[in-house]
Amino acid sequence: MNTIDVLIVVDVQGALAGSLQDNVYLIDTNKHVGSGSEGQAELKTVCKDGQVINWSVTPVSPSSDVNITRFTGQMIADEICVPTPVTALGVTYWTARVEARGTTGAQQYSVELTMDGKAMSFDPFLSIGG
Question: Which residue of 10, 51, 57, 109 is 20 to 30 Å from 41, comparing CA positions?
Fold first, then answer.
């Protein structure tokens, strides 16, 4: 099974001045598999039981700073996918294995980001196939 990488891109100045929901853009490496809502806050990452998903974050402006603080929501509460931070080669990303245990369909989760000491969150989805 292939690993899925999810990139979270944030316009930090826009988020701090307004809302994170309108200033966060997600893409993943599924390509032809068919994840939905790419380039938006509510990415629907298509995945299967046993796949590993990695999340990383980057600001649009190189002078901004943004970090993933934690994950919460349905997928965490149901223990479907519980990301933990990993640091490799000086870069921190979050990783987890999908452990669906028969669960299929949409699992919403929240990603909390910290920007200039302020925590904000948004709510994408996993779309677990059978």
Answer: 51
